[in-house]
Prior knowledge:
The protein has 66 residues and is of the alpha+beta class.
Amino acid sequence: MSTSPIAQGSSATNGLEVVIVGAGFGGVAAAIELKRHGIDAIRILERAPDLGGIWFYNTTSCFRCA
């Protein structure tokens, strides 16, 4: 049973283009979920030179991922 209200490959997803603003955790998760539901025309816009959102800019050692 699919949890998506739009079935994969249905006419509702044909021609659909999605723009996601921000390549942080939420933006990347949204892109993954859209791909899972059959939407392939996805563009992610990010101001930073790499993925990560706030984690890319964060330089405080106690909050740093790596």
